[in-house]
Amino acid sequence: MHKPIAQCRIDIRSCATQFAAMDKKIGVLPAAVAMAGIICGVFLWFQPAPAGTLPDMMKIAAVVVIAVSLWASGIVPEYFTAIIIFFLAVVLTDAGAKTVFSGFHSAAVWMIFGGLIIGAAVQETGFGHTLASGLLRIFPRSYFGILCGITVVGTVLCFIIPSNTGRIVIMMPIFMALADQVGFEPGSRGRAGMGLAVAAGSVYPSLAVLPAAVPNLGWLGATESIHRIKFTYAEYLIANFPVIGIVSMITIPIICRFLFPGRIGDAGNAVQPARSSAEQTRLVIVLTAAIGLWLTDFAHGVSPAWVALGAAVICMLPRVGMVPSSIMIGKISYAPWFFVAGVIGMGAMVAKAGLGTYISRFLFDTVPLNAGQDFLNFAIVGGVGSAMALLTTVPGQPAIMTTLAADIAVATGWPLKTVLLTQPLSWAMAMFAYQFPPFILAAHLGGISAGHLARLVLAMCATAWIVMMPLLYVWWQAIGYFG
Q1: What is the DSSP letter of 77?
Q2: Which of 7, 91, 156, 210 could form a disulfide with 236 if both were Cys (CB 3.0 to 4.6 A apart)?
Q3: What are the pLDDT digits (tens) for 83-138?
Q4: Per-residue confidence at 429, pLDDT binned at 50, 70, 90?
Q5: Beta-carbon neighbour count of residue 320 at 10 Å?
Q6: Number of neighbours of residue 319 by Cβ within 10 angstroms
Q7: Does residue 472 lie within any of the structural domains?
Q8: Are both 140 and 267 inside the same structural domain?
Q9: Whether 118 and 95 share a structural domain
């Protein structure tokens, strides 16, 4: 009984240390962004709702602006901002606890929870180090070569494991163990580059593979329920992967190498012998079964989240499991769990209040679409979709943009299917890490700082605007998507 209490005390002290360290590192710009957001939020809270909207819309807008400013500035940890959202939304708005805390009912939150346990099992059993020893024999003996290998593995797994969280949970401990073997210490730029390659390689290529991520599935459900349009796996892949997928595979290693330079030390020249154990064997069986169930979810209908939760339960079973159930006390941080719940709850509030639809219509009125100006229209639709993801995050954005697709099709003269297919590009244009909840989990598992993660996301955002958007436009012109 004493050990868990001691662990909890250590955890509390570490949290206090984290807050103190952040207080010292806060710069002028992040503090200014946070303060501007708070001031704007207070101003919005006192404004009357526009005609024809819900009376509570401006109060919800105030909470959302404050949340976005805190997440964007990184002035406090992401999970603490989520807790602030819960408090402000329940006390200051009429959204209701059912909507505010709806994130805890979401499959994505329980996918995160199961992923945390599975990730801990990979680390505790030493399976990550065992597999890393094998990978070191295959991967090129250079930092850039390893970054390329990580990205390729992440992309291949997009076709096998239909969950960003599942891929990150499995890959991150393995490649962090590989970072240990090649001499990258915790806190080093090389280690950060490898961790970010895992995160980006799991997320960005998956946007072009239909069942590989939550936003894709949300988009598919919205297109079917709202417009009665069904997209095939091949149709989605042909439209998006030749640009979004391939450009991501090429640019991720380059960006990670440029932003986080590193050099493999002498330790990387000697491959450590792999060691296996009974616990690792049992873990391999559990992971193989989980991957098999993820691959066949179309047949059995069980959500990937419940598969992950079931795998976590098996990992913690007495005697049979690979980690003690007491690992949940003190050794596992629930910060990503609270963060994702807060993000989903905020998206639910935005949708319920009609805030996203109102803002998107305002943006389209401000920068109107004109038939015949296909490239300009393409950029505007992508930009508005990207702006919506600031409020709803990427997983929640399809619910709003899909609703507006028919109006956009009329204004641009494009087929409705083309309008609907513009959304994956806007997801790649995300400007902040909080817009992709799996990034926060990846940062937690890989020990990646918020600053490093922000630099990667901004670099990928610039890549989406400068490289992906023009190439995707040319590709769609070639295959006749604009009419």
Answers
A1: -
A2: 210
A3: 998 999 999 888 888 889 988 887 778 878 887 888 788 878 877 777 777 777 78
A4: very high
A5: 10
A6: 4
A7: yes
A8: yes
A9: no
Residue 403: what pLDDT? 85
Nearest Cα neighbor of 411 from 460, 378, 444, 433 is 378
Closest CA to 335 of 437, 195, 454, 196: 437
Give the residue carrying structure tokens 């988009």: 219
Residue that terminates a domain, selected from 50, 79, 100: 100
Task: Tell me which residue of 452, 465, 390 sits closest to 197, measured CA to CA.
Answer: 452
Q: Check: CB of residue 170 under 8 Å from CB of residue 153.
A: no
Least confident segment among 136-150, 266-280, 341-355: 266-280
Residue 141 backbone dihedrals phi, psi, to 5 degrees: -85, 55
Closest among 64, 48, 47, 50 to 99, alpha carbons compared: 64
Asked which of 42, 67, 100 is the last residue of a domain, the reply is 100
Q: Are residues 309 and 204 in the same domain?
A: yes
Distance in angstroms (rounded) separating the CA atoms of residues 294 and 162: 6
- Is residue 8 included in any domain, yes or no? no
Domain shared by 322 and 453, yes or no: no
Domain co-membership, 147 together with 220: yes
SS3 content of the chain, % helix, strand, coil (to 5): 80, 0, 20
Task: Give the pLDDT of residue 11.
Answer: 43
52: left (phi over 0), alpha (psi -120 to 50) or beta: left
Q: For residue 329, is it within any domain?
A: yes
Over its C-alpha atoms, the chain yields an Rg (Å, rounded) of 22
How does pLDDT run across 201-237, given as a tens digit for each residue?
A: 999 999 999 878 888 888 888 888 888 888 888 899 9
Note the pTM of the prediction, 2 decimals. Answer: 0.79
Distance in angstroms (rounded) separating the CA atoms of residues 472 and 156:
22
Total structural domains in the chain?
Answer: 3
Answer yes or no: is 7 within a domain.
Answer: no
The CA angle 210-353-99, to the nearest 5 degrees, is: 75
Residue type, 298: F
Question: Can you tell me which residue has the tokens 């090649």?
Answer: 182
Domain shared by 24 and 111, yes or no = no
The CA distance from 392 to 348, in Å, is 8
HSE-CB of 12 using CA atoms within 13 angstroms: 6
User: Above 60 in pLDDT, residue 450?
Assistant: yes
Could you tell me if 126 and 280 are in contact, meaning their C-beta atoms sit under 8 angstroms apart?
yes
Residues 242 and 268 in one domain: yes
Cα 343 to Cα 67: distance, rounded to the nearest angstrom: 9
Give the integer Cα–Cα distance in Å for 72 and 138. 39
CA angle at 297 for the pair 294 and 299, rounded to the nearest 5°: 140
Residues 424, 398: Cα–Cα separation, whole Å:
9
Give the range of the structural domain holding residue 26, as residue numbers without chain letter: 19-100
Distance from C-alpha of 348 to C-alpha of 355, rounded to nearest angstrom: 10
pLDDT above 90 for 440: no
Coil, strand, or helix at residue 125? coil
